[in-house]
Specification:
Blueprint: H1 2-37, H2 39-49, H3 54-73, H4 76-96, E1 102-108, E2 112-114, E3 118-127, E4 136-142, E5 145-151, E6 159-167, E7 172-176, E8 180-184, E9 191-195, E10 200-205, E11 226-231, E12 236-242, H5 254-260, E13 264-271, E14 275-280, H6 290-309, E15 313-317, E16 322-323, H7 328-336, H8 347-354, E17 363-369, H9 374-381, E18 389-395, E19 402-406, E20 409-414, H10 420-428
Parallel strand pairs: 2-10, 14-15, 14-17, 17-18, 18-20
Antiparallel strand pairs: 1-3, 3-6, 4-5, 4-8, 7-10, 8-9, 11-13, 12-13, 15-16, 19-20
């Protein structure tokens, strides 16, 4: 009785978590919709909004309001306030006039790091004029944040170097730069930027673990693995049968034909080259937390990278798109930018739409979160041919390595990335 109540509470908890994650997904979709609808107006006013800060707009409105009130009410104090605010804005205009006589060089030690590592680099700024320049603020955009460097006053053609380190707590594709020289008044009411370098990109790869050839033995290569499909042309010989019009004459077995007096042709069993299909769910309400989603991405990256290193064929996809898989680095570059996808379909719809474009897969692995119902997994399995071995890896933080079989579907639970090689060995056993 107690266990039944606990199971009901756990079921209700998973349902509430799924509803909460679904609501967050709707909010993200709404924000993306609003940004898309306002993109053109924001681009039209960008030349003004990039120079005039919101505080400057407030001061300008206050100056106009004080001027209007002073005229209507004949208050000299309001006139003084309006004049003072106008002088402050005019002084700010004087600060942002003029050119930036500086050049910059941005040098990253590595353009690819693993999450948790530090990306280091250097920024060299040079005074390109022959005259001394006043101190400036140099900004380096790093993804959604900005790093500020205070450039001291430099003599003509003098250089100044800054070293920096970028912490990488999360997997991401970070846009670095362009490096900007910023002219601004002391109150930062007005500012004018000048780009000094071209933008660069830093890929923060997901953490992966080597699985090893012995652990990935559930994928067999060309030699020795056949499927129970009869083919008229392949490598593995199966039997002889009578010739029928349309058969390829190259496969006629002449010795047997001469002995029996009837034309006999060879039949073969199809052999299948190792071809792994990995489907990573990017649906928000399939996961309890962001940490669980990161575990799933790391699992998909580890499986894909190991498959490519072993020289096997890989087809990897998210809920909405195929990923390029010609090299492990290319695959991990794309996984660095994988995120929850708005309006992502359920797993069964993904496999039906994208899995149909993949032919010849020998093993399919669904990498999902802990909130995906078993019924969805079984429906997704039915979208694949019967001779394709199908495995489900549930990313479930804190769970032990569990393996159970549901008819022709192997379902596993994984709580830590370091336990993935053990799981693969158990599947290969």
């Amino acid at each position: 009785m107690t266990s039944t109540v606990a199971e009901q509470r756990g079921s209700w908890g998973r349902r509430l978590t799924g509803l909460r994650r679904r609501a967050v997904g709707r909010m993200l979709d709404g924000r993306a919709w609003l940004a898309d609808r306002t993109e053109r107006p924001r681009a039209a006013v960008a030349p003004v909004t990039s120079v005039v800060s919101p505080a400057a707009w407030v001061l300008a409105c206050c100056a106009v309001a004080c001027l209007w009130a002073g005229l209507r009410l004949h208050w000299s104090e309001l006139w003084l306030v309006a004049c003072f605010l106008g002088v402050v804005l005019l002084v700010g205009v004087a600060f942002v006039l003029g050119g930036h006589h500086v050049a910059a060089e941005l040098d990253l030690s590595r353009n690819r790091v693993v999450v948790g590592e530090r990306a280091t680099g250097s920024l060299v700024v040079t005074n390109t004029s022959r005259r001394r320049i006043l101190p400036l603020t140099i900004q380096l955009p790093v993804g959604p944040t900005t790093a500020d460097f205070d450039l001291p006053s430099l003599h003509g053609e003098e250089r100044h170097e800054e070293l920096f380190a970028i912490p990488t707590q999360r997997r991401a594709v970070l846009d670095l730069g362009p490096v900007r020289a910023v002219r601004a008044d002391p109150l930062w009411l007005l500012r004018r930027d000048q780009d000094l370098t071209e933008p660069d990109v830093l890929h923060v790869h997901p953490r992966t673990v080597p699985i090893g050839s012995s652990s990935s033995g559930f994928i067999r290569d060309l030699e020795g693995t056949t499927v129970r499909k009869i083919s008229d042309h392949d490598v593995a010989f199966h039997a002889l049968r009578e010739y029928v019009p349309g058969d390829d004459r190259r496969f006629i077995h002449w010795k047997t034909s001469a002995r029996t007096g009837t034309l006999m042709v060879r039949q073969f069993e199809e052999t299948r080259r190792a071809h792994l299909m990995v489907v990573l769910s990017t649906r928000l309400d399939d996961y309890v937390s962001d940490e669980e989603f990161e575990l799933a991405v790391s699992v998909a990256g580890s499986l894909g990278a190991q498959t490519l290193r072993d020289g096997h064929t890989l087809s990897e996809m998210t809920s909405t798109a195929h990923l390029r898989s010609e090299h492990p680095v290319v695959l991990l570059d794309q996984l660095s930018g994988v995120d929850y996808e708005g309006q992502a379909p359920r797993l069964v719809d993904t496999v039906r739409r994208l899995g149909g474009e993949v032919s010849g897969a020998s093993v399919a692995i669904f990498v999902v979160g802990s909130l995906v119902p078993d019924a969805d997994l079984r429906r997704a399995r039915r979208q694949l041919p019967l001779d394709v071995r199908t495995i489900v890896v549930r990313a479930t933080l804190g769970s032990e390595v569990l393996l159970r079989t549901m008819a022709d579907l192997d379902t596993t639970m994984l709580g830590e990335l370091d336990e993935l090689p053990l799981l693969m060995r158990r599947l290969a056993g």
